[in-house]
Amino acid sequence: MTHATIVILLAVGLFFGMLLFLEIGRRTRLRRMKEDTETSPEGISSIDGAVFALLGLLIAFTFSGAAARFDTRRQLIVEETNDIGTAYLRIELLPAETQPALREIFRRYLDARIEVYQKLPDVDAAKSSLEKANELQRQIWQQAVAASRAQGAPAAAPILLLPALNAMFDITTTRTMATQMHPPRIIFIMLFGLALAASLLAGHGMTGSRVRIWFHMLGFATVMAVVVYVILDIEYPRLGLIRVDAFDQALVDLRESMNRDVQIRGQR
User: Fold this and answer.
1) Has residue 235 got a pLDDT over 70?
2) How far is CA 251 from its chain centroid?
3) Does position 122 have pLDDT exceeding 90, yes or no?
4) Cα distances (Å, whole numbers) of residue 81 to 75, 207, 227
5) What is the value of pTM for the model shown?
């Protein structure tokens, strides 16, 4: 079962669960009104307000956190593109005879990095591409160090190239860990629990009329289900319907620029 399907099922389940709790709360209040017609429900509104305020706070917290992590992941794609492009350009500092082999392995490395995220949500295939990219990192480093020590290499070559390679390698770890940064599951459990509790209290308070107010009941449940769906989907932008794939085009464009660079050098 895909992540998108799971999120949809959770949202649908929350929708019907809220309708159920709204009805339970309503019937509980009606039964109590039949048994005790004189008791005034003073102080109940303040309790309801506190629960709804806590629910609003939790929604704001989870949504803002998911949106911030979504933006961070997009920024990291741009950062990796810049790091790879910078390191690729600095190959020019090396002796001419060492450049073609290093440029070729750079292109293979970029292909592997693009594949890591294109193959998601197939986690096993993505891990295989990640391992391939890590192996190519080791080869790039070895060749770059050897080339920077080769005869005719300028003294500035290792000073400028090696730190650029470090930045290019480090961003891969940052991006990998960013995909695993999510709130603890207890946060989402609390969100679902508070939504159901708020539904129970809302149903308890909707007894001004003995006729069900379907418009408000369906509206409340729908709004909450949609909000929770968006939060869960944006939290995993490589698995759901809300995705960061459009920003991967930056890496693809960089790969195409490398191809043009090869063609230009071949014409010289």
Assistant:
1) yes
2) 18
3) no
4) 10, 59, 33
5) 0.83
